[in-house]
Design goal:
One of its GO terms (cellular component) is membrane. The structure is a single chain. By secondary structure, the chain is α+β, with helices and mostly antiparallel strands. It folds into three domains: about 5-70, no CATH class; about 75-175, Tetrahydropterin Synthase, Chain A (2-Layer Sandwich); about 185-235. The chain has nine helices and eight strands. It has helices at about 5-20, 25, 105-110, 115-130, 135-140, 140-155, 175-215, 220-235, 245-259, and strands at about 30, 35-40, 45, 55, 65-70, 75-85, 90-100, 160-170. The strands form three sheets. The chain has a three-stranded antiparallel sheet with strand order 3-2-5. A three-stranded antiparallel sheet has the order 6-7-8. A two-stranded antiparallel sheet has the order 1-4. Strand 2 (about 35-40) and strand 3 (about 45) form a beta hairpin. The termini are far apart. The mean pLDDT is about 80.
Length: about 260
């Protein structure tokens, strides 16, 4: 401690005694459970680290302090216009959750840790999304959020800030891109429908072929099918019923005609 600092401290104590008991209300400060106080005396950081929670003592004129909130804070990253890896322009916004882990660093190492963290989050969002394709941005939000959290956490560690969570809120596409994606999805659905219909036709034709093979091997099966068809026709209220003539009845007459 230098001579000037000793003299300033002595004058501060003298002022405290002369203004007693009014000064007693000015020298005692209280910090809450979720707060810490970083105290400077004549510009130097006081030993002992951050104070709190509870009550602490400051000398008038030579001491000043800064309170740091240790609770988790969230903020919205403004929508960022990002050019993806496949040259598509999208607007993306996110939300970041962080807290102060080391109060001394948050005051000494950076001028305004809150503002710096917000600017860094916006820059990191653009940088991370610029390395991804549009399909990856739409389908891998959780992976992108985890990557952003790691990048931000490493960058803010010297400031005593811990980034706890990052979430991608919304991805907005240009109107033309939305229409193109909708048309592509519709075409894909129609293609799948045609494939399913073709597979159904193929299975139906195979079933008909197997049925025809069975009927060709057994004439009795054809007669049973014929009787079943008549039963179905008779159940309907038709005014006219046409009975087809079985080929096995007229077969002898056809042979006689050929002779």
């Amino acid at each position: 401690m230098g001579l000037v600092e000793i003299m300033a401290t002595a004058c501060s104590f003298l002022l405290l005694i002369l203004t007693f008991p009014v000064s007693i209300f000015l020298v005692f400060k209280v910090v809450q459970e979720y707060e810490r106080a970083v105290i400077f005396r004549l510009g130097r950081l006081r030993s002992g680290g951050a104070r709190g929670p509870g009550i602490f003592f400051v000398l008038p004129c030579i001491d000043n302090y800064a309170k740091v909130d240790l609770r988790t804070v969230s903020f919205d990253v403004p929508p960022q216009e990002v050019l993806t890896k496949d040259s598509v322009t999208v607007n993306v916004d996110a939300v970041v959750y962080y807290r102060v882990e080391e109060p001394l660093k948050s005051i000494v190492q950076v001028s305004n840790y809150s503002h710096s963290t917000r600017l860094l989050a916006a820059t990191t969002l653009r940088n991370v999304l610029g390395t991804r394709n549009l399909s990856e941005i739409l389908s891998e939000r959780e992976n992108i959020s985890h990557t952003m959290q790691n990048v931000l956490d490493i960058a803010t560690e010297p400031w005593g800030v811990k980034v706890e969570r990052v979430e991608i809120k919304d991805v907005r596409l240009p109107v033309q891109m939305q229409r193109a994606m909708a048309a592509e999805a519709e075409a894909a659905r129609e293609a799948r429908a045609k494939v399913i219909a073709a597979e159904g036709e193929m299975k139906a034709s195979r079933a008909l072929k197997e049925a025809s093979d069975v009927i060709a091997e057994s004439p009795a099966a054809l007669q049973l099918r014929y009787l079943q068809t008549l039963n179905t026709i008779s159940a309907e209220k038709n005014s006219t019923i046409i009975f087809p003539l079985p080929m096995d009845i007229i077969q002898p007459f056809l042979q006689m005609a050929k002779k």
